[in-house]
């Protein structure tokens, strides 16, 4: 591609970072409503598939593991094969990359849902806020207090930021649109078949294990971004002072860094299927309040900006290197 002053665009330089910046901007300015998001169809398919192949969660554990693994393949492989076939006929693969990335970036619709719930809490509509929060939370919401609901939303926003934004961006830079949407489909299956629900305790374990492996690096990077912004030493000390119990290690580090950034307590016991489960309690002087939801959104958005600047900076360095050599 010719450029001014006789400069030519290096063929070795990936266009993905530039596409990423443009698509993130488009998703920020024109977020797709959650009800019309392309992933809604995949969620419905995953739910119906689970109903067919997991009709009895009381079956032997080994059978549930096997059926869960096969369901993961049945849900993921055909979707990826169909999308891959589109690349074989597309004359504009970069445009297809951009569309798949846009479909995978549903973080902004999640952010909007959380902000609407905050407005309900600020106007005293706790019952309505609990109902709206069901789409974002796996735990039981009907008995949550305002503080408990706020804390749950802060944790959900933090974890979804890592898996639904940071992870998708990294997958896109490394593997293009197909890699980004493939990663996102795995995390979606983990959400739909969450082992924290009784009916998916064993059936959803394979999808959860794969999603945990894929999201480990995004969670660690998100933890580092938050720590750099709000104090590496304070975040490290909070991680050291808190015992990691009944929670994924990478998620634990991320929640500790978020707690240090917000200066609010996170973690603690949760209710799944009506049963109380103990978790690590990340202690701070103050408990969360409803206005912290918007603070969390702002903090996470700033960490996203950090990540995009790093990606853009790396791309520019690669360009300079290519031009000099």
UniProtKB/TrEMBL annotation:
Pathways per UniProt: Cofactor biosynthesis; adenosylcobalamin biosynthesis
Keyword Ribosomal protein found: no
Membrane topology of this protein: Multi-pass membrane protein
Residues that span the membrane, as ranges: 20-42, 63-86, 165-186, 206-228, 305-323
Subcellular location: Cell membrane
Signal peptide: none
Keywords: Cell membrane, Cobalamin biosynthesis, Membrane, Transmembrane, Transmembrane helix
Cited Pfam families: CobD_Cbib
Principal location listed in the UniProt entry: membrane
InterPro entries in UniProt: Cobalamin_biosynth_CobD/CbiB (IPR004485)
Membership in a protein family: Belongs to the CobD/CbiB family.
Record-given protein name: Cobalamin biosynthesis family protein
Source organism of the structure: Rheinheimera aquimaris
Lineage: Bacteria, Pseudomonadati, Pseudomonadota, Gammaproteobacteria, Chromatiales
């Amino acid at each position: 591609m010719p450029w001014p002053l006789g400069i030519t665009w290096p063929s070795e330089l990936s266009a993905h970072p530039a596409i990423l910046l443009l698509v993130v901007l488009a998703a920020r300015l024109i977020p797709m409503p959650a009800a019309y998001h392309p992933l809604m169809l995949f969620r419905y398919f995953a739910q119906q598939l689970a109903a067919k192949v997991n009709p009895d969660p009381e079956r032997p554990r080994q059978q549930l593991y096997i059926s869960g693994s096969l369901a993961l393949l049945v849900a993921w492989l055909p979707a990826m094969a169909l999308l891959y076939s589109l690349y074989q006929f597309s004359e504009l693969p970069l445009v297809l990359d951009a569309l798949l990335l846009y479909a995978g970036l549903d973080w902004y619709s999640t952010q909007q849902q959380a902000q609407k719930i905050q407005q309900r809490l600020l106007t005293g509509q706790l019952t309505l806020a609990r109902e709206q929060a069901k789409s974002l939370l796996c735990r039981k919401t009907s008995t949550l207090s305002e503080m408990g609901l706020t804390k749950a939303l802060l944790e959900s926003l933090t974890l979804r930021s890592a898996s639904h934004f940071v992870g998708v961006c990294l997958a896109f830079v490394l593997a293009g649109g197909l890699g980004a949407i493939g990663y996102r489909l795995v995390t979606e299956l983990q959400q739909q078949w969450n082992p924290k629900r009784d009916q998916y305790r064993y059936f959803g374990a394979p999808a959860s294990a794969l999603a945990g492996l894929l999201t480990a690096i995004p969670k660690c990077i998100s933890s580092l971004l938050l720590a750099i912004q709000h104090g590496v030493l304070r975040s490290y000390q909070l991680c050291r002072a808190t015992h990691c119990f009944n929670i994924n290690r990478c998620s634990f580090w991320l929640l500790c860094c978020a707690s240090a950034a917000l200066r609010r307590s996170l973690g603690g016991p949760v209710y799944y299927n009506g049963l109380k489960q103990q978790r690590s309690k990340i202690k701070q002087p103050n408990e969360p309040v409803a206005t912290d939801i918007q603070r969390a959104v702002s903090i996470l958005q700033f960490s996203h900006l950090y990540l995009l600047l790093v990606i853009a900076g790396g791309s520019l360095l690669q360009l300079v290197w290519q031009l000099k050599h």
